[in-house]
Design brief:
Bound molecules: adenosine-5'-triphosphate, magnesium ion
CATH architecture of the largest domain: 3-Layer(aba) Sandwich
Helix content: 25-40%
Strand content: 25-35%
Strand order of the largest sheet: 6-7-8-3-9-10
CATH superfamily of the largest domain: P-loop containing nucleotide triphosphate hydrolases
Distance between the termini: 57 Å
CATH topology of the largest domain: Rossmann fold
Number of domains: 3
Radius of gyration: 23 Å
Largest sheet: 6 strands, mixed
Structural class: alpha/beta
Number of strands: 20
């Protein structure tokens, strides 16, 4: 098989961080090539270089054997390389059609909307992706936006597709559909680079795998030569144990921290997204919510954190009615929030780490004396969090946007936990994290539980829900289709409830 892409001796540094250290990488025609490595290993950087977003400090790139200079993404697109980014780059106020059209060659401003729309529809039908071309992007869920990104890349007729953690926002069923599509593209002779932290996925769909660690290439291997354990030991320098379902002592208090009583919430489209939902979360309890994205979880979380009004029902925190009081007051009641869309809602990308750490508390002691900010306190606070949460960053003055995806998530968690919350609302807190960081986050949440915090955990990872939660509720079509004690349920039962089978509460 011919080599479509060869990258030789790629070097890229940011200040004194060497993100890529003489990396060799090659991609064959008609293969799915997994790119693995822990958070901050240099995966996105390497692909940004291939896509013309960064120019390397040293190294060469060959396409079909010819040395090329890729100076910008439009060069890359001309060479037939397309990239779906880890963090969305869609224009919020535009519709799906408009966003896809902007990515196409020769469409410009006066794109033939109808042609683009037809291509989106054809694509949706051929590959089973459901997308309404006329919805403005801001109304889409994270999973839906991810799909628009993929359609956009695919509509460019690329021969090389770079997908940076495409499945982190997809449900298992959507991931299955995506893989079906990748296999079809492979048959057509296209090449795919797939970045993911999920080893099962890599083993399921890839032909070859390249592992990076600390900016260096460790190895490229054939899928038949390795198992999960081999991959993990290539990725990390220490042994990783795979967490199964744990039989921990589930100690739950009877004090109620959060009480949700018959609440209904509208979606952005003014449809009922949450329908008459009720549940309680106790002190020291992790309450999991399972469900396929788009079944009301996002709206429920926004109602609880004060970002969206309820049309019916009541929300109580420690017995106080906090229905529709707004986000500031919810925060003052001690509610921490780890949002679903980190870049858009969780951090201010252009601001430094230290500023991001105090986003929610800059006007309070000890960061402010009422009039002025105390810069030394703020800076020490940031240094402390960076070391405690093992956030890999140049220093506390770096803008948040320079962090790798996983490290941004750690930044948000670190910030949210410093308010000593009574309740943590965590939406997909481990999405996009490597196994070591996932363990770290799980331990943090369990420690909070032990300290008496209540946790609302929204996740699509059933394994994660089973290993952390005391009880699991499943959302389907805006309602809770069942609540189960974790010790008394199974993956199969939760799965049934996720597709609408089961009782109504
Ligand atoms: N624009 C930038 N400025 C400064 N440092 C950067 C920049 N981009 C990346 N880095 C640093 O380079 C290193 C590699 O980052 P990269 O984003 O390539 O990691 P990654 O393997 O994609 O990680 P993740 O799995 O968390 O997404 C990190 O230490 C990161 O902080
Ligand atoms: Mg990355």
């Amino acid at each position: 098989m011919g080599k479509v892409i060869q990258m030789k001796g790629i070097v890229k540094s940011f200040g004194n961080i060497i993100a890529n250290n003489r990396v060799d990488f090659d991609l064959r025609e008609g293969e799915i090539h997994g790119l693995l490595g822990e958070n901050g290993a240099g995966k996105t950087t390497l692909m940004n270089i291939l896509y013309g977003l960064y120019s390397p400090d040293a190294g060469e790139i060959y396409i079909d054997g010819n040395r090329v200079d890729i100076k910008s993404p439009s060069d890359a697109i001309n060479f037939g390389i397309s990239m779906v980014h880890q963090n969305f780059k869609l224009i919020q106020s535009h519709t799906v059609v408009e966003n896809v059209a902007l990515g196409l060659k020769g469409t410009g401003f006066f794109f033939p909307a109808r042609t683009v729309e037809r291509r989106i529809r054809e694509f949706s039908q051929k590959y089973g992706f459901k997308i309404d071309p006329h919805t403005p992007v801001w109304q889409l869920s994270a999973g839906e936006k991810q799909r628009v990104e993929i359609v956009k890349a695919f509509c460019r007729n690329a021969k090389v597709f770079i997908l940076d953690e495409p499945t982190s926002m997809l449900t298992p069923a959507e991931t299955g559909e995506l893989f079906k599509l990748l296999r079809l593209l492979r048959v057509e002779g296209k090449s795919i680079i797939l970045i993911t932290h999920k080893l099962d996925e890599v083993l399921e769909v890839c032909d070859r795998i390249t592992v990076l660690r600390g900016g260096k290439k460790i190895k490229t291997v054939d899928i038949n030569e390795v198992n999960k354990k081999d991959l993990a030991s290539m990725m990390f320098d220490q042994e990783i144990s795979f967490l199964g379902r744990e039989n921990r002592m589930r100690k739950v208090d009877k004090d109620i921290i959060l009480e949700i009583k018959n609440i209904s919430v509208l979606s952005d489209k003014n449809l009922l997204a949450v329908k008459d939902v009720s549940f309680n979360i106790h002190r020291g309890e992790i309450f999991g919510i399972a469900g396929v994205a788009g079944n009301g979880q996002k709206e429920l979380v926004e109602a609880i954190t004060g970002l969206r009004r309820t049309v019916n029902g009541n929300i109580y925190i420690l017995g106080r009615d906090v229905t529709n009081v707004g986000p500031r007051e919810i925060l003052d009641k001690g509610v921490a929030h780890v949002p679903e869309e980190r870049i858009r809602m969780g951090v201010v990308p252009s601001m430094s780490l230290e500023e991001n750490f105090i986003l929610r508390s800059y006007n309070k002691e000890p960061f402010s004396d009422g009039l002025f900010l105390r810069y030394d306190v703020i800076s020490n606070h940031a240094k402390e969090l960076i070391s405690r949460y093992k956030i890999s960053a140049l220093d506390e003055k770096s803008p948040a946007i320079t962090l790798s995806g996983g490290n941004i998530q750690k930044l948000i968690l670190a910030r949210e936990l410093t308010i000593s919350p009574v309740l943590i609302v965590a939406s997909h807190p481990t999405q996009g994290l490597d196994m070591k960081s996932i363990q770290q986050i799980h331990e943090l949440l369990l420690k909070q539980k032990e300290d008496g915090c209540a946790v609302l955990l929204i996740s699509e990872d059933i394994q994660e829900l089973l290993s952390l939660s005391d009880r699991i509720a499943v959302m389907f079509d805006g309602r809770i289709s069942g609540i189960r004690n974790t010790d008394e349920t199974t993956i199969e039962e939760i799965g049934m409830l996720m597709v609408g089978g089961g009782d109504r509460v």
